[in-house]
Amino acid sequence: MPELPEVEHQARFLRRLVLNRKITRAEASPTQVLQGKTTSVSFTEALSGRHVSAIERVGKFLILRLDSSFVLLSHLGMTGRWVARSSTDPSPSHTRASLFLEEERVFRYVDRRMLGRLEILHEADLAKHKSLASLGPDPLLDGLDAARLATLLATTRRPIKAVLMDAKIIAGIGNIQATEALFRARVHPQRPASSLSKDEITAIADGIVATIAHTLAAHAHEDEIVYLSDRRDVKNPFLVYGRVNEACSRCRTLISTVVVAMRSSAFCPSCQPATRAATRSALQRGR
DNA sequence: ACGGATGTTCGCGC
DNA sequence: CGCGCGAACATCCG
Fold first, then answer.
1. Which secondary-structure segment (H or E) carries A163?
2. Catalytic annotation on A60?
3. A263 has catalytic annotation
4. At A231, is the pLDDT very low, low, confident or very high (cuts 50, 70, 90)?
5. Contact A181, A208 (CB under 8 A)
6. Nucleotides of chain B within 7 Å of a protein C-beta?
7. Annotation marks residue A130 as catalytic
8. In the predicted model, is pLDDT for residue A83 greater than 70?
């Protein structure tokens, strides 16, 4: 489930429980998870006996800095998460790596689909990491105002939703946050980015900031990352994501869906009209 | 039983 | 160069 808010929640969770602690031993099970090609040091060698000196988040990446020249870079993919357990408890299924701390504490990286990645890097190579280096501004770390967003959107006619999900444009926005931000801004996901008005761009910037804050707040009381699909007792905290065929919370029109950049996008056909002209008339009608 | 799922990267073709 | 499309990674759920 991880997009920016979930990864931020994970960072806060790990800071509370792992920061300044000593990793007595570390192990990673399947080699697929690890991409240590840039260093000669193994996962176990790099981490064992080290203290975690800082935990950072950039976009959807987690960075665990160690009291050595190495860092652990973690990307959760679609289904990755870090969980806290006692070392005497059995490993959850799909455990891919474990960081053992003192007092029988262990942090396990669990990733069902294994689309996430763990990498051991030299600190000096972090800035050269291709995916990290190409990230656009992070809305939480760098802020995202309308002027900045306008510059990022001006040069392309790609659908706005595809652009918002492009990590090189803005870091941390995935399918859910892009869907939610566009609903909040009342902008159709397929509108060409460069066709958007100044007011619409302002609404999108505000929508991004608002949906991230809302999602972060929804996770605040959770101790670990909860997958919506795992927990049917947790109610859907989103305005349109996962609400196809439900009534729009603003106008009661049924929420619809359209595929943009190969991802399904929930939207309200009435609040988020496909053309700018239709947007104007919808606003005049008071939507 | 098949299609879809919160992510990213890469190759292909226009 | 821009961009859409599909595949690949691996697994589960409805």
1. helix A160-164
2. yes
3. yes
4. low
5. yes
6. 4-9
7. no
8. yes
Render A105-119 in DSSP notation, one character per residue. EEEEEEESS---EEE
A2 touches strand B (CB under 7 A): yes
pLDDT of residue A276: 72
The four Cα atoms A5, A10, A15, A18 give a dihedral, to 10 degrees, of: -170
Residue A275 banded pLDDT, cuts 50, 70, 90: confident
Question: What's the Cα-to-Cα distance from A60 to each of A6, A112, A140, A271, rounded to whole Å?
Answer: 9, 18, 12, 30
Catalytic residue, from A50, A60, A161, A243: name it.
Answer: A60
* Å between CA of A85 and C1' of C4: 44
Catalytic, A113? Answer no
Per-residue confidence at A31, pLDDT binned at 50, 70, 90? low
How many residues can be counted in chain A?
A: 287
Q: Give the model confidence (pLDDT) of A61-80 as tens digits.
A: 999 999 999 999 999 999 99
Q: List beta partners, residue A258.
A: A265
d(CA A74, CA A119): 7
pLDDT at A39 over 80: no
C1’ C3 / CA A158, Å = 7
DSSP A139-154: TTTT---HHHHHHHHT
* Pick from A29-38, A180-189, A199-208: least confident: A29-38
User: Does residue A4 reach within 7 angstroms of strand B, measured from its CB?
Assistant: no
Average pLDDT, rounded, for chain A: 89
- Asked if strand B contacts A130 at the CB level, meaning under 7 A, the answer is yes
Q: Which residue is nearest to nucleotide C11 (CA to C1')?
A: A113
Task: Tell me the pTM.
Answer: 0.93
CB A68 within 8 A of CB A61: no
Say which DSSP state A254 is in: B
Nucleotides of C under 7 A from a protein CB: 2-7, 9-14
